[in-house]
C-alpha cells in the first residue's frame, strides 16, 4: 500500500510498486520492501514539492535516491550485497547448507556455484 497522499494509478504509486518488487526480488521481506519503497517515494515527493512538509535531509541531498543507488554513507565497510540478498541468490542456485552460513560464507558459495555454472 503506497504512502498516504499517493493516489492510485499515479507515477508515485507505480514507483512504489516497482521499488517494492525490486526489493523483494533482492531478498527483502515484504514489510522491509514496503518500508524502503514508502521512504523512497516520500523522499522523492518532498524533493519535487509534492508533499506538505519536507525535512532538510530530504531536500538537501545532492544525489537523488536513484542516482545514489544504495551507497551507504558514513561507513568504512565494503559496499555490496546484504546477507539476505546473498541468501536469496544461494537459494536460487541450490547451495546446500545455506541457512547455516554467514555472509562471507554465502559470498564464497555463490561465487563458487556461479563459477561452476560457466
Automatic annotation (TrEMBL):
Residues 84-109 form the Rho termination factor-like N-terminal domain. Transmembrane segments: none annotated. Residues 1-118 are annotated as: Disordered. Residues 14-23, 31-53, 81-106 have a biased composition (Basic and acidic residues). It comes from the Bacteria. This is Rho termination factor N-terminal domain-containing protein. It comes from Paraconexibacter antarcticus.
Amino acid at each position: 500500500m503506497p504512502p498516504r497522499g499517493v493516489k492510485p494509478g499515479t507515477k508515485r504509486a507505480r514507483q512504489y510498486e516497482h521499488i517494492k518488487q525490486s526489493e523483494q526480488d533482492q531478498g527483502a521481506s515484504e514489510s522491509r520492501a514496503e518500508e524502503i519503497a514508502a521512504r523512497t517515494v516520500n523522499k522523492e515527493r518532498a524533493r519535487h514539492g509534492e508533499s506538505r512538509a519536507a525535512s532538510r535531509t530530504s531536500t538537501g541531498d545532492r544525489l537523488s535516491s536513484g542516482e545514489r543507488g544504495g551507497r551507504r554513507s558514513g561507513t568504512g565497510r565494503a559496499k555490496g550485497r546484504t546477507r539476505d540478498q546473498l541468501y536469496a541468490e544461494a537459494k536460487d542456485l541450490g547451495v546446500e547448507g545455506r541457512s547455516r552460513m554467514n555472509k562471507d560464507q554465502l559470498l564464497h558459495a555463490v561465487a563458487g556455484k556461479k563459477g561452476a555454472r560457466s
